[in-house]
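Ticket #4471: structure output looks truncated?

Reporter: J.K.
Steps to reproduce: submitted the chain below (378 residues) through the standard prediction queue, then opened the result file.
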Amino acid sequence: MTYHIPLLTLLIFSQSISADLRGTGDLGVIIEREPAAIQIINTTSKSSISRITDLGDLSHASVVFSRDARYAFIFGRDGGLTKIDLLQDRIAKRIIQAGNSIGGAISQDGTLIAVSNYTPGGVKIFTTETLELVADIPALYGDNQLSKVVGLVDAPGQKFIFSLFDAGEIWIADLKDPAQAKIQKFKAVGKQPYDALLSPDGRYYIAGLFGDRGLALLDLWSPEQGVKRILPDYAKQDEKLPVYKMPHLEGWAVAGNLMFIPAIGQHEVLVIDQSTWQLIKRIPVIGQPVFVMARPDGRQVWVNYAFPDNAHLQIIDVKTLSLIKSLNPGKAVLHMEFTPRGENIWVSARDDNRVVIYDTNSFKEITRIPANLKFPNY
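Returned output as attached by the reporter:
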């Protein structure tokens, strides 16, 4: 299952470095929006190694990594797909594959890269080796209309799953044979699915619904049962507040048997029991959650917020389901990423042009890395 974060992505598999050689697992990427650049960083020394420019529109960029962790694939808002060689500090290949793209995923075996597109609506599949197009899946619905595609993830069995925002559908694309992609469509799942997550075990695909109450759940072990609506009556009587930034479900917030979900238009984090898919608690928070992310060991959940509360971070203790800490890393806290064992978290403060690194046990700030994170239109 692919895990990607638009502004700040870390990937660590080893702790060894040397003066001349470096392991790919020790490297990470910080995306700098305005200059259309990235920094390649060393996550052990917490320092910047190099900078690569001329990467197009990175106003809503995201990153996934190759199976061997040598390459980073960057999806740009201008439809650009860029393959970065993290060891040679260079662009290995760059193409413009669409007019407006918002993210992507890499296949189970690491040979295919999928890109979800707003314009034209659909998904395109490329080889990770050469970025050659091997499959084009237009998101057609209704009277030959094209839908924006959101919530693209990779799943076991060489499959990609995604949602059609305008059509209210979820599609499964089986790419075992890229030349003969098999598409399974689930219609009328709810109005305007805006994002989705895949549970860490690869079983459940859950799409948030912007235009409907509740969430759309697809059990990939039993797809013949269709899409089920969960939490259909959540906040039915509550006033829905204006939404200044869409919540993101792709920041996995699964801790043990509990799932933590950002509430649309509410100042709450929802806690769901995965065994029953029932809401067991509504945790009041300072603002409208955007990312709700579980530390790798599942003991903490970190939450950031939409404007006007986006200078804050709050931490939930999973054992007590209560807030235990609030932090203020800087202006416009947008994205977070844990180190693999969760001892540190890297946090982007967009309007202060910095990445702040915290110790997740003491909550103390470790260091800061300057980065040009702002974008003129934001």
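Triage note (M.O.): checked the attachment and the full token line is present. The CA atoms of residues 42 and 252 lie 24 Å apart.
Status: closed, working as intended.
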